[in-house]
Write a structure and sequence with these properties.
- By secondary structure, the chain is an all-alpha fold.
- Helices cover 84% and strands 0% of the residues.
- The protein contains four helices and no strands.
């Protein structure tokens, strides 16, 4: 394969990756919006999500260990950094 062929293949792979990354990012934002709505519904109904791992996150937040709380939240939920920070801020 010549240099031109390799370059073309590299561009196709890059374009495919960029498209996939964009779709994943949109899906992450959609999921975050749905989770916010569900949180509001739970709050309105006076219900709380009882997840022992999230209780650990809340305990870290209450102790002022915000960075550890964010890290723990990300590990538990798979959330992105901004979503985890926002969730921990709501806990505080």
């Amino acid at each position: 394969m010549g240099t031109l062929g390799f370059f073309a293949l590299a561009m196709i792979v890059f374009a495919s990756y960029a498209g996939l990354e964009g779709r994943l990012s949109r899906n992450d934002r959609r999921i975050a919006r749905v989770e916010k709505k569900l949180d509001r519904i739970l709050d309105h109904l006076g219900l709380a999500e009882a997840d022992p791992e999230l209780e650990q996150v809340a305990a870290l937040a209450r102790e002022g260990r915000k960075i550890q709380a964010i890290k723990a939240y990300r590990e538990v939920t798979g959330a992105g950094l901004k979503e985890a920070k926002d969730a921990v801020d709501r806990l505080i």
